[in-house]
# Entry
Amino acid sequence: MASRNEFAEFVIGQMAGLGTIAARRMFGGHGIYCDGLFIAIITGDKLYFKADAQTQADFEARGLPRFGYSAGGKAVQLRYYEAPAEVFDEPQAMRDWGRLALAAAVRARKPARKN
# Structure
């Protein structure tokens, strides 16, 4: 069973109605999944949504910071952007931004291999 924290539980509650939401512990934070697709990262008290070429501009237009970390002395940035503040007060805003992340995850999904 995946361990959860209060913030992850809050995010899951705010995303209700988007699909089947689950949090899985990873690297000191949590991965947030919707219907089995990885759509967000929680680290500390910050939530980052998945983006892609079609949705990245929506995040950048709001000036939302990109998720990054250091590995082997090098800065690494992933295409995940910090959630805008209103998602924590408005469940509909959480679902709207969550839908953008879910759409990016669907587009990134690799087709099943044919045997």
